UniProtKB/TrEMBL annotation:
Record bears the keyword Transcription: yes
This protein's name: TF-B3 domain-containing protein
PROSITE patterns per record: B3
Keyword annotations: DNA-binding, Nucleus, Transcription, Transcription regulation
GO cellular component, one term: nucleus
CDD domains in alphabetical order: B3_DNA
Cell compartments where the protein resides: Nucleus
Pfam families named in the record: B3
Molecular function GO labels: DNA binding
InterPro entries per record: B3_DNA-bd, DNA-bd_pseudobarrel_sf
Length: 107
């Protein structure tokens, strides 16, 4: 099983240009990489990871949210699937999307 973490989207996560990575997950991230690829809904989304004392997704996070219509109250699971020579690759699993099979009401 690949290491992963989950984030329940709050209003502040929707409006800011970055997304913090939980500190307990830092041990799984190499210190030499600053590029990441988030795979979601069949598409790769490229962005940077701040690699300082605190780590977060940046330079593309807001664009990813807007283009995928991610909303407050949705749960995103970030599954680390590969670390290559050039980037860190995550597979995203998002729950909360309204479908006929999985109706979710978001206020």
């Amino acid at each position: 099983m690949n290491p992963s973490f989950e984030v329940l989207m709050k209003n502040s996560y929707i409006t800011q240009d970055y997304m913090h990575i939980p500190k307990y997950f830092y041990e799984h991230l190499p210190e030499s990489h600053s590029t990441t690829v988030l795979h979601y809904d069949g598409e790769p989304w490229f962005m940077k990871i701040n690699m300082g004392k605190r780590r977060w997704f940046k330079d593309g996070w807001k664009y990813f949210l807007m283009n995928n219509n991610i909303k407050w109250g949705w749960l995103i699971n970030f599954e680390l699937v590969e670390i290559t020579q050039f980037c860190v690759i995550f597979q995203l699993h998002v729950t909360g999307r309204v479908t006929l099979q999985d109706p979710v009401e978001i206020n």
